[in-house]
Amino acid sequence: MLRAEDGLTIVEFHGDIDLAVETRVRSRLDAALARQAPVFVVDLRQVTFLDSTGLRLLFRARQRALSVGVSYAVVCAAPSVLRVLRIHDALDLLRPAPTLDGALALVGRRRSRS
After folding, report:
1. What is the pLDDT confidence band of residue 110, given thresholds at 50, 70 and 90?
2. What torsion do the CA atoms of 102, 95, 74, 89 make, to the nearest 10 degrees?
3. What is this structure's pTM?
4. How many helices (H) and strands (E) does the chain have?
5. Number of domains in the chain
6. Residue 84 forms part of a structural domain
7. Is residue 114 included in any domain, yes or no?
8. Domain region containing 45
9. For 39-97, what is each residue's pLDDT tens digit?
10. Residue 113 within any structural domain of the chain
11. C-alpha distances out from residue 101 to 49, 69, 73, Å
């Protein structure tokens, strides 16, 4: 799912992110980045499996976002996904937070409450 709110673009993923869905995931990330919101959030809370293909897509999206001045945040609480990030020494680079508000705080943003 892709949604925009208050200067944020949030792309949510569910299930597995692996070689079998690489093209679809890349397309969704690219579509989200094309919106050029000041903050780009990848929400992995519903992801159950992430392989090296998925990790590469996250790195690529981060690089593309930062190269055009867009803040990049990752929301992730799933132990299986966090384990992959830890094994690949990606926790410091991607800085996942367990909640959307936590991820936004890491990039110096807050959601406005209506």
Report:
1. confident
2. -150
3. 0.91
4. 5, 4
5. 1
6. yes
7. no
8. 2-106
9. 999 999 999 999 999 999 999 999 999 999 999 999 999 999 999 999 999 999 999 99
10. no
11. 23, 20, 10
